[in-house]
Amino acid sequence: MISGGAGFFTRTNGGNTTYMPIIAPLIVVPIGPRLQIESRAAILETASPVPGRGYDTSHFAAFTYLQAEYFFNPHLTVIGGDFLIPFSTYNERLSPIWISNFQSGPLIANLGAQGTGSGLGGQLRGSAISRPKYSIDYAAYFSARSGNEQFGAQRSFGGRSSLYLPQKRVEIGLSYNRQLQGTRENFYGAHLWWEPAGTAFRFRSEFSRGHHAQGYWMEFDYRTTAFGGLESWIGRFEPVLRIQQTWRRDTVVSDGLPLVNTQRADFGLNYNLPHNTRILTAYSRQFSTAGNRNLWETGIVYRFLLPAWKGKK
């Protein structure tokens, strides 16, 4: 199966607009009933304004991850290769362009994700307990150090555990990451998701804390069913709000967060067209001692899904 997304984004900051076409293909290849290969890549080009010279372009193409998965049983899956680090939820669940509500990720997206967001090594994950009223899942990993251009990674270990209440449609989880190279650091994370049954309202949030900085984000999105359902022209509108804040614990720079305490509000209005196409628009206002600024983002994303080859009858 070949899936993924293709999009075209614009980003305006201080009157300067950057353009970015991108394609992010994903492939899943089953090898027998228990083994499969899974990979996602990113191919993009960026055109950025240069004062007095027009636009400067840059190209980027790389694997986001490339992993083999072996399903022992419903409680254990073993993963090996270059995988997304299971810290909080954004890195694994919300970063694909066809899923995320905003073009840009949260300010704390790199905290606990080791910068690249991926590790090179092994991972164990699955459902520890599954009951009608609750379930508990887990993910634990170890990553080796790698300086490879395509599969760069830092030496670290960690994991995540989550409690899900299906009747309340609430998920609560905790994450931990220990960096084992360079500056030895511990990272802690927590997340809370709530998607009430019978509605198209979603609430998602994360908190992350490192040795040098910490922060949180909360995201709300909603689609109305009052005027003909989700597929009506009104039901396709999706207003989105994200509130986020970061704090510096010291002035050492090693985590990718702003150098000063920062507050930011992101307002979006997305439109869900037929055939898995979405129009994304967002306005952000950021406040900090380094200066306040406005950020405008627009984009269109198409989600594709097709078989790689015919299956056996």
Characteristic key phrases:
single chain, 313 residues, mainly beta, 16 strands
Textual characterization of the structure:
- By secondary structure, this protein is mainly β.
- It has one domain (66-306): Beta Barrel (Porin).
- It is built from 1 helix and 16 strands.
- It has one helix spanning 90-94, and strands spanning 2-13, 16-31, 35-50, 54-73, 76-84, 118-130, 135-144, 156-165, 170-179, 185-194, 201-209, 213-222, 237-248, 262-273, 277-288, 293-306.
- Strands 1-2-3-4-5-6-7-8-9-10-11-12-13-14-15-16 form a 16-stranded antiparallel beta barrel.
- The longest helix is centred in the N-terminal third of the chain and has 5 residues, at 90-94.
- It is globular, with a radius of gyration of 20 Å.
- The protein starts with a strand and ends in a 7-residue tail after the last strand.
Summarize the structure.
The protein is an all-beta fold and 313 residues long. Helix content is 2%, strand content 62%. The longest helix has 5 residues, at 90-94.
Task: Specify the CATH homologous superfamily.
Answer: Porin
N→C terminal distance: 16 Å
Strand content: over 45%
| Percent in helix | under 10%
- What's the total count of β strands? 16
Overall pLDDT metric: 92
In CATH, the architecture is: Beta Barrel
Question: How many separate helices?
Answer: 1
